[in-house]
Specification:
Strand order of the largest sheet: 2-1-3-4-12-11-10-7-8
Number of domains: 1
CATH architecture: 3-Layer(aba) Sandwich
Radius of gyration: 16 Å
Number of strands: 12
Order of helices and strands: EHEHEHHEHEEEEEEEEH
CATH topology: Rossmann fold
Strand content: 25-35%
Shape: globular
Largest sheet: 9 strands, mixed
Helix content: 25-40%
Number of helices: 6
């Protein structure tokens, strides 16, 4: 019997193009489900945290719905999570974009703005170079739309680096957690292949009880 297609819960952050994210998973045979249910986000087999726009607005939306605690619980229990763009940034401790607003604090480090001398936002294609032990990421060209970034891949994490007026962390990975500053859903075949690798990794993880 053919296995049932995986269901992927996509968090409604209030600041994301959910249609393009959903379409990417549909092309891979998955069933996207958009939700703000905190208990579902904590326990679902597969969750995506997308985001565009401001760090502060995204964090406010998550906190008002109890999703910040759900995400921390999910990550603590080693459940698969894909974070995209601002979704990656809110995993960090804070951002210069929204002074005084705390992030989820999963990833050590502060999000900072690109130098004023650069073209900002970085809008378009750029290359990523994975760290040596990265298991999901590959050297490729992907699509970015960002004015802020994490300066480096923190200790204890693998990831990828990209140059835009200097090197920055364009992705992070640790176990079944994959965080991309770029938009894999807008990155053509390279992005779909990356999402597919994440889905395959997630399928090998035994569900945990909370």
């Amino acid at each position: 019997m053919k296995p049932a297609p995986p269901e992927v819960v996509i968090i409604r952050t209030g600041s994301a193009n959910l249609a393009s994210v959903s379409a990417a998973f549909e092309r891979l045979g998955a069933i996207p489900r958009i939700s703000e249910d905190a208990s579902l986000v904590a326990s679902a087999p597969l969750v995506v945290l997308p985001g565009v726009g401001a760090f502060g607005a995204a964090m406010q939306h998550l906190r008002e719905r109890g999703l910040d605690a759900s995400l921390r619980d999910r990550i603590a229990n080693n459940r698969p999570l894909l974070a995209i763009c601002v979704g990656m940034q809110v995993l960090c401790e804070a951002s210069d974009e929204s002074p005084g607003v705390e992030g989820l604090g999963i990833v050590p480090g502060r999000i900072t703005r690109f130098a004023v001398s650069l073209r900002v936002p970085q809008m378009g294609w750029n290359s990523i170079s994975p760290t040596p032990a990265a298991s999901l990421l590959r050297s490729d060209w992907v699509y970015f739309a960002n004015s802020y970034r994490l300066a480096r891949v923190p200790d204890g994490w693998e990831g990828a680096r990209t140059d835009h007026g200097g090197e920055f962390a364009s992705a992070l990975e640790r176990g079944p957690l994959l965080a991309c500053q770029f938009h894999p859903e807008l990155s053509g075949a390279a992005g779909l292949t990356l999402i597919e690798r994440w889905l395959s990794l997630a399928a090998t993880k035994e569900p945990l009880t909370c």
